[in-house]
Structure formats: structure tokens, C-alpha cells
Design brief:
Blueprint (H helix, E strand, L loop, with lengths): L1 E4 L6 E7 L5 H14 L3 E8 L5 H10 L4 E6 L1 H11 L5 E6 L5 H5 L6 H10 L1 E10 L2 E3 L2 E5 H8 L2 H7 L1 H12 L5 E7 L2 E7 L1 E5 L3 E2 L2 E2 L11 E6 L5 H11 L9 E6 L1 E7 L3 E4 L2 E5 L2 E14 L3
Parallel strand pairs: 2-3, 2-4, 4-5, 5-19
Antiparallel strand pairs: 1-6, 6-7, 6-19, 8-11, 8-17, 9-10, 9-16, 11-14, 12-13, 14-15, 16-19, 17-18
Helix pairs in contact: 1-5, 2-3, 6-8, 7-8
Length: 300
């Protein structure tokens, strides 16, 4: 991350909380009190039950001249608003209230409410990279394959009540029937053809709250591509176990590439998950926007 200033006078903020995220409903009132206790005045605050409204609420707040937007929710909630903030003189603050909170983890933001609120008041403003898929921005990663299938099968209610264990339950049910697919990548103009069970294009190192791709950094100006090799879906179980044990780079299981611009086509067509939400299908074009987002992070 590239620090802008060691501190920045942001004394007023707009708070938008997705109350359908895992902890949003429970902690909304507490979040308001804690932010104001840290010395930030909330000029507007929105508990939002319909996540589809969040983009419009943030867009209207920006139109009224607000320059500090605090979003409470998970990776999908945060990702939904960053296209509005990319390349603009607006600062994003995060209250992690989701299941994995990969983007918050990657930027050192505490997962606890008090610590996250303290960062909003006392932290630094850093510039971090964003990914771009087609014409929209994302924060952490794009997934194609079995991970996307798991996201499509994981309801908001399940994630809210079961957390990461809910993802595991869906994964076990999906692994038995999942098959590898053919994939053609164009990485900065160079074609690569492979067969994979799961493809991940990462801006940050975390996957499911664990470090899965330590090569991926949010200030590198590049994306990391991870392709899981093998025809058996149980290779995925083996790989996830290795990630849980801290062994993240096994050449027998993975192909890893880096690129700034990526084109992806698959046979057959695959669903594409963007920061945990299945939003589109292949083919897709993916790139990186260096230092595009101004984000409140811990000073250290």
C-alpha cells in the first residue's frame, strides 16, 4: 500500500451498513456509537436490508459532497461500491461484518468493531490497487470453477448463521460432481491453454479468511492467477487442506502466473464469482487499476 499521509482530517462520515451481512444487523447500533466515540461525526447513517440499494445510497451521498464513506459488510458489499470511488478524491472506511472479510484482512484492518472504528479515526489514508472485470471494479479476487459454484449455492442466510463452516458444507456436496474444464488465458498478450478445476485471479492474498496466495499484494500493480491442476475434484480438498496448514505453493497442484491484463475463455462456459458473489459468465476481461482506491488503514 502507498501511504498518502500519516493521518488525514476526516471528521465527518456517512455510514452504510448491509444488515443482511453476517454481523450487520447485530452490530449496526453499536457501530454508530463506537464510531462517534472515536471522534467521527456521522452526518448520515443507513441500515440497509436490501443490498441492491447500497450502490444508490453511496452514489447519492457522493453527489451531496461527502468525501468519507464508511461501509459495514462483507467482501461483496465493499466490492459493490468501489467502482464509484475508483480514482476519486473520496476515502473509503471499512467495518468488517462479513464471513471471510478478505479485503479487510489484506489491508490489516482489525475484524473487531472497536479496532476497526479506531482505524477510521486514527488510521492513515493509503492508495491500494483495484481489480477490474469487464467495466466494473473489484477488491480481492475473481473465481471461476468450483469456488464460483460454491458461492452460487451459498445463501445469505446460510453465510449469516454458519459462517465459513457453511461454505465447507456446500463444498463437500459440490466436489463429488464437479469436473475440470478447458481454459484459454491471454496474459499480457501471451496465450496459455490449460485444464483446471478452479481458477482464481487475485488482487489480495486471502481466500476464505486464509492466506492462499501470498504473492498477491494490493500495491504491486499486478494480479496473480492461480489454476488448480488435475481432473479429480478431490484435488481441491487436498489443496485447501494445505492452505489451512500454511503450505500455499505446491507445484504439483497449482500453476501460478502474474499479469496486468488477462483475457479468459472456457469450454464449457463457466460462472464467474466476483468477491464472493456470482455475477457473470465467461468469457471475461480482467485487469488491474494501480493505486485506484483511497482507503483508511492502520498507520503501521
Amino acid at each position: 500500500m502507498s501511504p498518502v499521509k500519516s493521518s488525514e482530517a476526516l471528521q465527518e462520515a456517512v455510514l452504510v451498513v448491509n444488515t443482511q451481512s453476517r454481523w450487520g444487523q447485530r452490530y449496526y447500533d453499536m457501530a454508530k456509537r463506537e464510531i462517534e466515540r472515536q471522534g467521527i461525526r456521522l452526518t448520515e447513517a443507513y441500515p440497509v436490508r436490501d443490498a441492491a440499494r447500497i450502490v444508490g445510497i453511496v452514489e447519492e451521498a457522493i453527489g451531496r459532497g461527502h468525501r468519507f464513506i464508511v461501509v459495514g459488510g462483507g467482501d461483496g458489499t465493499v466490492s459493490s461500491v468501489v467502482s464509484l470511488l475508483a480514482g476519486r478524491d473520496i476515502v473509503l472506511g471499512i467495518l468488517p461484518m462479513g464471513t471471510a472479510n478478505n479485503f479487510a484482512r489484506a489491508n490489516g484492518i482489525p475484524l473487531g468493531l472497536e479496532g476497526a472504528a479506531r482505524v477510521l479515526a486514527q488510521g492513515a489514508v493509503a492508495r491500494v490497487d483495484l481489480g477490474r472485470i469487464n467495466q466494473e471494479c473489484f477488491t480481492n479476487a475473481v473465481s471461476i470453477g468450483v469456488t464460483s459454484a460454491i458461492h452460487r449455492s451459498s445463501s445469505d442466510a446460510m453465510k449469516r448463521h454458519l459462517g465459513r463452516s457453511g461454505y465447507l458444507m456446500v463444498a463437500l456436496s459440490r466436489l463429488r460432481s464437479y469436473r475440470a474444464f478447458a481454459c484459454r488465458l491471454v496474459l499480457d498478450g501471451k496465450p496459455v491453454c490449460l485444464e483446471t478445476l478452479d481458477l482464481r485471479i487475485a488482487n489480495g492474498p486471502y481466500h476464505g479468511g486464509l492466506v492462499a496466495l501470498p504473492e498477491a499484494r494490493m500495491d504491486s500493480g499486478r494480479l496473480v492467477v492461480r489454476a488448480i491442476k488435475g481432473a479429480s475434484p478431490w484435488v481441491l480438498g487436498r489443496m485447501w487442506m494445505q492452505i489451512a496448514l500454511g503450505r500455499t505453493r505446491d507445484p504439483d497442484l497449482l500453476d501460478v502466473f502474474e499479469a496486468r491484463e488477462i483475457e479468459i475463455a472456457t469450454e464449457p462456459e463457466q460462472f464467474v464469482s466476483v468477491d464472493g458473489e456470482a455475477l457473470t459468465r465467461t468469457p471475461v476481461r480482467i485487469g488491474v487499476l494501480p493505486a485506484a482506491l483511497r482507503l483508511k488503514v492502520p498507520k503501521a
